[in-house]
Amino acid sequence: MNATIESILGHKFTRADLPREAMTHRSASSGKGSHGSNERLEFIGDRVLGLIMAEWLAERFPREQEGDLGRRLAHLVSQPVLATVAEEIGLASVLSVSSGEAKAGVKQRATVLADALEAALGALYLDGGLDPARGFIRRAWGRAMVEQAEPPKDPKSALQEWAHKRTRGAPAYVVTNRSGPPHAPEFTVTVTVGDFSGIGVAGSKQAAEQAAAAALLGSLTP
């Protein structure tokens, strides 16, 4: 596995335990020592991604203020973007999950892909520091960064504006499912505007609402 994840990340690890742990979904974890799941590395990777992305945005858009930069950052570190990046680099092919979860298609879930990508970043940082993490992020997020010509609106705000312009009433968000253990919950939210609806899944209610709004916006006619 290590050689493959090393080729994906463009980094040769000195600690073989880190990439192994990063690519171990909790369903395949023994829960013992270095063979635990990738959740701890995901926690670190999330912070590393935020720091390096903030640095990159400040460099790329020197005239923009906190509000615009914040919206750009929120988009680039959002679950849909992370899942897309993970798919593009083939991360699912080196992710270890239990046989049952594999049959259920867990490797294709946006939440799982996004978490694995953050865990990979955590491993990269712990093994080599900020420089290799920075290099990987700038390669992997290059297209997403270039596509951001203007500061994006967050999906919930954009959907609110869409509904207001068409006098559809305010979007209604409902949590339709909650699963997973207390330390790693997964929320499913359905948003409805008139006869239209969208579904989002994420590790928090707020993120699931944003994902649902984004899904609905993607299905609407401008």
Structure explained in plain terms:
By secondary structure, the chain is mainly alpha-helical. Helix content is 55%, strand content 10%. The chain contains eleven helices and three strands. It has a three-stranded antiparallel sheet.
What order do the helices and strands come in, and which of them pair?
Elements: H1 2-9, H2 17-22, H3 39-60, H4 66-76, H5 79-88, H6 99-103, H7 110-128, H8 130-140, H9 142-146, H10 155-165, E1 172-179, E2 186-193, E3 196-202, H11 205-219
Antiparallel strand pairs: 1-2, 2-3
Question: How many discrete structural domains?
Answer: 2
Helix percent reads 55-70%
* Largest sheet: number of strands, sense, barrel closure: 3 strands, antiparallel
Query: Structural class given helices, strands, pairing?
Result: mainly alpha
CATH architecture of the largest domain: Orthogonal Bundle
By CATH's scheme, which homologous superfamily of the largest domain applies? Answer: Ribonuclease III domain
Give the C-level CATH assignment of the largest domain: Mainly Alpha
Overall average residue pLDDT:
87
Number of strands: 3
What is the end-to-end distance? Answer: 44 Å
Strand order of the largest sheet: 1-2-3
- CATH topology name of the largest domain, in short, is Ribonuclease iii, N-terminal Endonuclease Domain, Chain A
